[in-house]
């Protein structure tokens, strides 16, 4: 029976790492209305909120307003006069400290609009910096036609990573902490590939991941499914530990996830054991102190802290 459940968990862990549309991440509902998707965005829409009027032969395409979340500045008028000096400079103006990365891995003329930022390119990679924390609207256009619109929640000092597929939808792959201001990752593609478990190199950038990072981090849905399966697989600590070790070969864990798994152990000796083993797979080691809360005794916490200090 133990082997059966272990095999099931192994097959599950393998199934969530194939880099295929819809195989990873959380699907975000498309809130765009059908009438909006039949109208074309033009260069003035950011200023007027109007969509481009189509030929009368195009049924269903009318001159209607769409929900536009742009707030561009009007361009300076060219009148061959010296512009009036603007002394109200905003040195080091802090708009926000968060990031949103969107990938569209298919051919097409796509544009992405988030908050007051609008981006269009042929690379299929859209990286938005200095984003405000909170709920905001993301709109995706193909050939200037709205194809997807939904709300996303941007956490403070975090990077939201998403994939969009025209036939499947917009998927939230993860929300990772942003630290420092330097980027040490080997390939920008890894930002999107890592959530699928297909990394070209170590994710060693400002997200706080280090060279020991190997594989993706399960999102909340995947982690809940894993822990539920873990509870069903066995009531014994030893069996749970073996299943966790199998999963550790495929994924990394956040400190909060490790804390939860440690708390699942019945005996403190096993809590110490799994906490030590999982430290190397923790993607946010600066938050590993949270794991100590899952240990019942001060002596246990001290033992794990000494172990962590010995290998750092």
From TrEMBL:
Name of the protein in question: DUF4476 domain-containing protein
Domain DUF4476: 217-307
Coiled-coil residue windows: none
Lineage, broadest ranks: Bacteria, Pseudomonadati, Bacteroidota, Flavobacteriia, Flavobacteriales
Signal peptide positions (record): 1-18
Region (Disordered): 32-88
InterPro entries: DUF4476 (IPR028011)
Biased composition (Polar residues): 35-61, 68-88
Keywords on record: Signal
Record flagged with keyword Signal: yes
């Amino acid at each position: 029976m133990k082997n059966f459940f272990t095999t099931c968990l192994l097959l599950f862990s393998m199934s969530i790492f194939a880099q295929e549309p819809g195989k990873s991440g959380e699907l975000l509902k498309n809130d765009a209305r059908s009438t909006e998707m039949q109208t074309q965005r033009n260069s003035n829409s950011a200023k007027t909120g109007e969509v481009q009027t189509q030929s009368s032969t195009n049924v269903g395409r009318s001159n209607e307003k769409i929900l536009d979340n742009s707030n561009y500045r009007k361009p300076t008028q060219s009148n061959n006069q010296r512009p009036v000096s603007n002394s109200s400079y905003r040195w080091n103006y802090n708009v926000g400290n968060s990031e949103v990365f969107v990938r569209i891995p298919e051919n097409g003329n796509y544009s992405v609009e988030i908050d007051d930022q609008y981006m269009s390119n042929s690379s299929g990679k859209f990286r938005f910096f200095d984003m405000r924390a909170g709920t905001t609207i993301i709109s995706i256009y193909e050939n200037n036609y709205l194809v997807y619109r939904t709300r996303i929640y941007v956490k403070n000092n975090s990077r939201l990573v998403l994939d969009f597929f025209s036939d499947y939808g917009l998927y939230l792959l993860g929300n990772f902490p942003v630290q420092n201001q330097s980027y040490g990752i080997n390939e920008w593609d890894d930002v999107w590939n890592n959530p699928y478990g297909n990394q070209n190199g170590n994710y060693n950038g400002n997200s706080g991941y280090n060279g020991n990072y190997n594989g993706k981090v399960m999102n909340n849905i995947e982690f809940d499914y894993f822990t539920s399966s873990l509870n069903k697989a066995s009531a014994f600590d030893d069996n749970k530990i073996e299943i966790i070790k199998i999963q550790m070969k495929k994924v990394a864990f956040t400190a909060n996830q490790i804390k939860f798994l440690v708390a699942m152990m019945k005996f403190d000796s096993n809590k110490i054991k799994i906490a030590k083993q999982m430290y190397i797979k923790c993607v946010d080691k600066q938050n590993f102190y949270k794991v100590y809360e899952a240990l019942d005794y001060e002596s246990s916490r001290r033992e794990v802290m000494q172990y962590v200090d010995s290998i750092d």
